[in-house]
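User: What would this chain look like folded?
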Amino acid sequence: EYDIVGYHNKSQLSSKPIDVLQTGKSICEGYAGLFEQMCSIAGIQCMKLSGYSKGYEYKMGQTFTGDSDHAWNAVYLDGRWHLLDSTWGSGVVDDSFTKFTFRYNEFYFLTHPALFINNHFPDNRNWQLLKPTLTLKDFENNMLHNSNFYMLGLLTAHPETAVIHTVNGKASVSVDCRSATLFMFKLKGTDEHGLMTLKKHGMKLDIYPQKTGSHKLQIFAKPSKASEEVYNCVLEYVVECKSVDKAMRFPKDLHQPVGPSWFTERQGFLRPSHPDPIIHTNDGRCSVTFTLGKDISVLASLHSDDSSLTEDMRRRHIMQIHRGNQIELKIHLPHAGNFVLKIYAKKKSDPGNYDYIFNYLITCLNTEVKWPAFPQSYSKWAEDYEILEPLSGLLPANRNVQFKLKMHGIAKVLVQAENTYPLTQSRGYWEGTCNTSGCREVFVMVHENANHSFYSHVLKYEVETQ
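Assistant: Here's the prediction, encoded as structure tokens.
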């Protein structure tokens, strides 16, 4: 195992192969020496190499000077040299460098030289086994990909430098991969100040630090088919921020990743009208449509840091319209600002709770915007019914208001205000007028069977106070 005590007190340490075998402990020098000796006994040509490494004490963007800090091996097999690191392949030490955990890592045995150079720079440049060889400056500047990056089948990351400078308060990172992979990020330990979108073959992340200075950015990943919740760190950057873009302060309810993706398609949300994560609206209104998979029931709610919307009102600023297997979410914002549109779903046949699927960021700069909520609907309001007018849940006082509703399988429709107004049916629509004088609430009621006298409430409107 790795000798943590010996690492901190090298004067007490012997790296001779015989001593390493007897104690069962050593640091990299002992691992590489014992490996060389074992190869010699087995008749395999082996070299012990030394150089700089981006290991435990490495800080992003640092320079390397003085003596080498690590040892590893090269072996000659099948007519050519290969590189390996038996120390790093045997396990890991924790962040405080007090505990070693055995964890065999195949990646560090016979690693391709183009990947090995990512964190091993030999004293003798020929042992890079590369043409052309890298300079120490290249090694210092290059992005550090740890073994998880390659083990998860990730291909490339941009930018390729360890330090990123923001431009107008923004920095961007992207990762390309072969197969569907889930990502998350932490900027200074939280995922608040970014916008991450999943792509079919990777991800894109825009970062907007809300403070100037140096920030540590970590990218984590896991295969989409992985059952366990564990994300592994695959990349680390330092983000240098000179100026802050205050306009890109996101609501705290925004959940990463943002916008639709291959993942939301798998959940049954197909052909989104808005493939981008941000929806901009000037008049405070927008509409998002999807083709829905079979047997899916949808719930949507609106969240903002600036408004004290109750749970009911969060839903009532969104109206669902179903046409066949298409769903439209019509959104009227209560005021200007940044909002999160959260979308949940469950199987209609499943009595359980709705599961969170994804969210959009909706932005509106127009301070004149002040849309009332949509009318309140009751359980008898069927999924494929539709309100054409009035869309506003708040009706003007002392006015004649035109109603036009799309409903089927109904015998009669009444609008109940101070007086009762029947709607007439024409070409699939129920239409008519109601006067709002002398009342605070207006109800739409339906008569499902002409032979019964029982009416069901389906919609409720408020009336403005004078």
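Helices lie at 4-8, 17-23, 28-42, 113-116, 136-141, 147-151, 262-266, 311-316. If you want, I can go into more detail on any region.
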